[in-house]
Every structure is written in structure tokens, then in C-alpha cells.
Amino acid sequence: MGSAEKSPATERSARSEELRRAERVRERRGRILAIGAAVVVVAGLVVGGVVLIDAQSNGGAAAASDPKDSKDSKDPEDSKGGDAKDRGPKGPGHFVTGADGVRTWTGTLTRNHTTETVKYPMEPPVGGDHHPAWQNCDGEVYAQPIDSMNAVHALEHGAVWVTYNGQASKADVDALGAKVRRTPYTLMSPVGDQKDPVMLTAWGHQRTVRGASDPAVDAFLAKFVQGSQTPEPGAPCTGGLGQ
């Protein structure tokens, strides 16, 4: 005998059971996916929060340490035209002498403009706060002393200042004067209280020479007239103060 055929009712019941099993599988799969998505979202929120907190913390630290935001930090050029409270070179500066005999000032040379008297720690001064008007320095030879504050402004423009005291010989003074007159961005004047008979000064640099024939004179002029030390290269040496 052959097996009995399933009745339509039995087939419908089996089919319904199969559909219910499939539905339960789908529901379980949906719950698993939903839980996984939730875990991913929560993890992302946690990581994002940590990154945000860390960024805010680093940003705060950077802001606290940024010298541009410090009240004590100020570009000297930003103070030009005003009356600064502190005058002259800043810090415990001193001269360091190189193998070529040139002395370089190690302290900070501020560049504020002021009409108040500036007390410089060296004579002649090699830089610092100065008068708004520069001393004409287009090969100018001054027979009388000039104001150091105006001369320092000329140094800022890249000039070399040749100075001498009463111990310098007339021959050296005349020869140096002739050299200065032939050299743009130079000036010359007597400075009675300088320590050596003849001295050459540029912004931040200075040296003593034996006289007009000393090879160091031409070497100094070649290096420092509009040299790399110049704070304002190309600024004029005319249109300022004469004598």
C-alpha cells in the first residue's frame, strides 16, 4: 500500500508553523542587529566625548602658554610712536667679542620711539629705544656731538656710526671723515666720553679700530652698512635731522 496523502488542513498547519519559525528567526536577527547598532552608537559617543574633552584641554593649555596672548609679550614694533615705560636695551646684556674683533651685544635691543631721555648701558649705544627722528646718515660728518637717540635711529636704518674722542689724531679724523663722505648709510661725530679713540658702531655691533688705515674699518663698513643686522633695511638716511 502507498502512503496516505496529507490533507489540506495538515499542509496549511505545517505551512503556518514554517512561517512562524521564519518570523521568529527574523525577529531574533532584528534584535541582534539592533543591539549591535546600539553598541556602535554608544561606543562612538564615548570616543567622541573623550576626543572633545582632550581637544578642549589641549586648547586651553595652548592658550595659556601662547606668548602672543601674554600681557607681558609685545612686539617692539607695536610700541612705536608711544611712550614706553621702560627705556633702553633689556635684560642682562653684555658684549661678546668675535675672532674679528667685533663685539656683539647679547641683550634684547628694543625699538620703541620716545622723546624721553634714554639711558644706554654702553657709549656709543648700539641700539635700544630712540627718538622718532633719525640723524641724517647719507655720508654725513658732524663736527659737533649729536644726540645719541637720533643716532640710534640711524643705526636702525642700517647705518654705521663712526665716532672718536679727543685722543684721536687729526689725521685719522680727517681720513675717516673723507671715507664717510664717500659711503652712503654712514655718519661720523665726536663722542667725548667713549673709552677708545676711534670706534665703529652698527645696530647690535661695535668695535675699536687703531685708526683710519686699520683694515678693520673697511671690513666693518662692508659687513654692516645695510647689513643683515639692520632692523629696517632700506629705510632712508636722509630727511631726518642735520646739524
TrEMBL record:
Membrane spanning stretches: 32-53
Biased segments, Basic and acidic residues type: 8-26, 66-89
UniProt region (Disordered), positions on chain: 1-27, 58-107
Keyword Nucleotide-binding: no
Protein known as: DUF3105 domain-containing protein
Matches recorded under InterPro entries: DUF3105
Keyword Membrane: yes
Species of origin: Streptomyces nodosus
Signal peptide: none
Pfam families registered for this protein in UniProt: DUF3105
Record's keyword terms, sorted: Membrane, Transmembrane, Transmembrane helix
